[in-house]
Amino acid sequence: MKNKNTNDAVANIMDNLAQYSRWDVQSVLKRFNSSEEGLDEFEAGLRLEVYGPNQISTERPTPWIVQLVKAFVNPFSAILFFLAGISFIIDVLLAAPGEQSWRSVIVIGSIVLISGTLRFIQEFRSGKEAEKLKDLVHTTASVVRAGAGKHEILMTELVPGDIIHLAAGDMIPADVRIVSSKDLFVGQSSLTGESEPVEKYDSLKRKADSEKTPGLSELDDICFMGTTVVSGSAVAVVLATGNDTYFGAMAKTLTGKRELTSFDKGVNSVSWVLIRFMLLMVPVVFLVNGITKGDWIEALLFGISIAVGLTPEMLPMIVTTNLAKGAVRMAKRKTVVKRLNAIQNFGAMDVLCTDKTG
Predict the structure, then answer these.
(1) What distances in angstroms separate CA 358 from CA 39, 61, 90, 265, 319, one per listed residue?
(2) Entry pTM
(3) What residue numbers bound the domain in which 342 lies?
(4) CA-to-CA dists, residue 276 to 305, 318, 319, 338, angstroms
(5) Which residues are catalytically annotated?
(6) Band (358; pLDDT cuts 50, 70, 90)
């Protein structure tokens, strides 16, 4: 359902852009109650309240209480919690007076507590560092405002109807319709994957089929948010900002529930192996011990103690400590890892290919 809604949103945005592409410049300006002199500051402020800041919605930072809970919620911790409960019943509740022992419960509980706390602290710190990095990045756009002329403003303050100036090296800050251009070439590789820049004009140069949704390459007079000016210059009017842009609609497909990492899958696999092994061994030990000795209560307790002995209680703390150590080492090299489990994926890489935009 989510994919269908996203596809519908992308199709609607492309239909709107195709319509603006076919209109002449004056019709587009009239549609947005704008002019080549730009919006005045008061009108721009009103539109900013209506349309919101020009930024793509990203995943909200996870509340610390949720991070804390997730740090303790994993298959292996569940096994240890179960074993701690069994140890509590056997060694404390069912033990004879004077023979009660909290040792196993305390040891297992401490291991789970230390492992989860280490994971929470490291991921919480990494999340805060990532947020600080976002705050350091400020992108501006050259905008024309009536009464104020041409000046730089934060990209997040752009609104539909704004008149902007584009030059070589600029990132297109929104979906725009070109008003005038001079030898304008735009790199659209972030959207299409094509390395060759595309020439853009101030009017539609090729005839588009009105019966179907046009492709990106067919809109000669439209520039998309997230693309870059390779050469030339242009003046353009902003058509859509933020999540209402083509780039914003596509970005929604990248947010949501994260896939399990190979580390997560490995931990789950080991946990299920242990569970299956215990489900096999405990009944066998219980039956053999009960038949040979005739004391079924003692046989049950011995079978459960076997389950406790089969579980490597220290493994979660050892794994978490190593992952945290890897995250700290990467932080010293100016790399922030928000999820500890991703460290294993980094370690499995031979070559990481990326461009300057990430």
Answers:
(1) 34, 20, 54, 26, 29
(2) 0.62
(3) 64-135+258-347
(4) 16, 23, 22, 32
(5) 355
(6) very low
